Every structure is written in C-alpha cells, then in structure tokens.
C-alpha cells in the first residue's frame, strides 16, 4: 500500500499536480475575485431594491437577473479556493481589503446605477482575467474554466448595461 503524505494536522497533503506555491497564488487571485464578486452582488441587489424612474421595471428585472446569477457564482468561486487547499474569505472586512470595487456612499439615480454596474462588471472581468493568467500558467484547468465562465458573464453584463446608456 502506498504511503500517503500528510500535512502538519495529519490530513493528507493535496497532490493534484499543482505546486503549493501555485495553488496559493491562484487561491489569492480567486479570493480577490470572490471579494469583487460579492461587492458587485451587494451593489446590484441594493440597486434592485432602490431603483426608481421611467425605467424602473426594466432595471428592477435586469438587476434581479444579474444579482441572482452573481449570488449563485459566489459558491463556485469559494469552493474552488477550498479545493486548492485554502480558506475562502467570508467577511465584509476581508472583502473591503481585497475588492477593487468602491461602494457608493448614497443611492444614485437610475442611470448612475447603470454606470456604476458597468464599471463594477468591468472590474470583476479585469480581476478574473488576472486570475486566469495565474491559473492558466499553472495548468489549473478547473480554475481557468471557472474564470472563463465569469469573464463571459461579466463582459456580457457590462455590454447589456452599457447599451442602456447609448
């Protein structure tokens, strides 16, 4: 029977073909993505609750579609961090440190909400792209696949929101 390598806590060491150093670097980038994604989720949900004006129904519905998708993605990102052997950030304090998205300090008007969500989705896409480079460089296909999916969603959301501003 083959001997199983164990860590200091006695649990089997992770041996998935990605070095400890690369797993840590990818997990760090995914943690930034999780923080950006959670911040964008919260902003989108806030705007869903507080939007007013002639485009109320359109924006209320669009924001709900987007925040629901964003909420569901959070679990996949956090679980990938855990699969790489690291703890996923899960507090507002951690997210505030890691996120590249500035939260609004007041409730903006409807078109400013759209502008902020365009910027937020673009920020998440940039964060996902940086994480993709780490994952791809380490031959981490599951993380790369997750990141490709997130890029597709956030670039599409940014385009749809941007279209409302033209």
TrEMBL record:
Pfam families: Ferritin (PF00210). One of its GO terms (molecular function) is ferric iron binding. PROSITE patterns: DPS_2. Residues 28-166 form the Ferritin/DPS domain. PANTHER family: DNA PROTECTION DURING STARVATION PROTEIN, GENERAL STRESS PROTEIN 20U. This is DNA starvation/stationary phase protection protein. InterPro entries: DPS_DNA-bd (IPR002177), DPS_DNA-bd_CS (IPR023188), Ferritin-like (IPR012347), Ferritin-like_SF (IPR009078), Ferritin_DPS_dom (IPR008331).
């Amino acid at each position: 029977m083959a001997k199983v390598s164990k860590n200091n806590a006695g649990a089997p060491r992770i041996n998935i073909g990605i070095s400890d150093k690369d797993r840590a670097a990818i997990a760090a980038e995914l943690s930034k993505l999780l923080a950006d994604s959670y911040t964008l989720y919260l902003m989108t949900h806030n705007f869903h609750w507080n939007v007013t004006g002639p485009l109320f129904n359109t924006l209320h519905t669009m924001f709900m579609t987007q925040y629901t998708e964003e909420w569901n993605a959070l679990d996949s990102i956090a679980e990938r961090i855990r699969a790489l052997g690291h703890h996923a950030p899960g507090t507002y304090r951690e997210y505030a440190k890691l996120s590249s998205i500035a939260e609004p300090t007041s409730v903006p008007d409807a078109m400013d909400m759209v502008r902020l969500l365009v910027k937020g989705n673009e920020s998440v896409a940039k964060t996902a792209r940086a994480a993709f480079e780490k994952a791809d460089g380490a031959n981490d296909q599951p993380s790369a696949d997750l990141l490709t999916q997130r890029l597709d969603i956030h670039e599409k959301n940014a385009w749809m929101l941007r279209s409302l501003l033209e």
